[in-house]
Write a structure and sequence with these properties.
A hairpin with a 2-residue loop joins strand 20 and strand 21. With 330 residues, the chain is mostly beta strands. The chain is built from 6 helices and 30 strands.
């Protein structure tokens, strides 16, 4: 099958599904606890965050450079990198908008992992799901083995889609990225560096990096026509997305017909709108047709998602989780 269109359809769905929630690292109190990537979650009790997946490689002072698969269909951009789980290679979406990493349910089965139900629910724009969790003891990025952790498993709807010849493994979220300290995504050169050196050159803007039990969220101030809003930095969103109330408040005109898709078994609709005169800090952003969600909000704690459609126009971006900085270009 042609994987590229399928990946973009599914990636658009990821913008509005509950892609990951934190889970307890102990065996007797695994519970989903809070909103995650672009979702509203209701839970019964708090839980501990998963162990930082990349901490072992970073503590050793290692930098890992991975060849990336960058898909581009009609301006919708997605970046995936290879990781090994249970001795099998998968392509994972580099997703700073996922507050916690998530393992696709089908990938978990292919890797021979046993997923167990956890307490709580995760509510998407279309429905409510009950996620499961799997203990991952054998996984690696490049040649670097990662520590044992527990990941939420969820059917992300990738089905048989592949990237770079590999089945899709899941979402490599901000929790993972935080553990590597600095992440550089080279859209033009199709590579991703975890544990990258600080950016040299380019234009820099301050970020807010929020570390909570539910995971890690990264936001930045954006002005649209002089009106300030907060956007979540979401490299896993192939197209930037905004809630209807915010888009209407900003007076964003429609830019085409609405489209429907199936977000991991949940119906969702987006309406293209035109974003103009936007600035990220003091950095002018290109005019773009972004998605407007007409049911609910695209994320929790921010007015919109700043996706890879806009970020990729700067060719390279560097997310410094330690210094809370985003560098565009350089």
């Amino acid at each position: 099958m042609n994987a590229r269109p399928s990946l973009v359809r599914v990636a658009a769905a990821i913008v509005v599904i509950a892609s990951a929630a934190a889970c307890s690292s102990s065996g007797d109190s695994d519970e989903v606890t809070a909103p995650t990537d672009n979702a509203t979650a209701s839970t019964s009790a708090p839980a501990s965050p998963p162990s930082a997946p990349a901490s072992s490689s970073q503590s050793a002072g290692q930098s890992v450079t991975l060849k990336a698969t960058v898909t581009n269909t009609d301006g919708s951009i997605l970046v995936l990198v290879p990781l090994t789980v249970g001795g099998k290679k998968f392509a994972w979406v580099v997703d700073s908008g996922a507050s916690s990493s998530i393992l696709d349910a089908k990938a978990a089965k292919l890797a021979g992992l046993d997923s167990q139900p956890v307490k709580g629910t995760v509510t998407t724009l279309g429905c409510t799901v009950k996620p499961t969790v799997a203990e991952v003891t054998d996984w690696a990025v490049g040649n670097t083995k990662l520590p044992t952790t527990k990941l939420i498993t969820q059917d992300l709807g990738f089905k048989n889609a592949k990237a770079g010849g590999l089945p899709i493994g899941g979402l490599l979220g901000a929790d993972f990225q935080l553990g590597t300290k600095v992440v550089r995504i080279d859209y033009a050169g199709e590579k991703v560096v975890f544990g990258a050196p600080p950016a040299a050159g380019g234009k820099t803007v301050d970020l807010t990096v929020n570390k909570a039990k539910a995971g890690v969220t990264v936001t930045a101030p954006v002005t649209v026509g002089g009106t300030k809003i907060i956007m979540q930095l979401d490299t896993g969103a192939p197209r930037s997305t905004m809630g209807k109330a915010t888009a209407n408040r900003l007076g964003l005109p429609t830019a085409g017909k609405p489209s429907k898709f199936n977000a991991a078994g949940c119906p969702a609709t987006v309406q293209p709108v035109k974003l103009t005169k936007a600035k990220l800090g003091d950095i002018a952003l290109p005019d773009a047709a972004i998605n407007r969600t007409d049911k609910g909000a695209p994320t929790t704690g921010a007015a919109a998602l700043l996706g890879s459609d806009i970020l990729s126009t700067f060719k390279t971006i560097t997310i410094d989780y330690t210094q809370s900085k985003l560098t565009l270009g350089g």
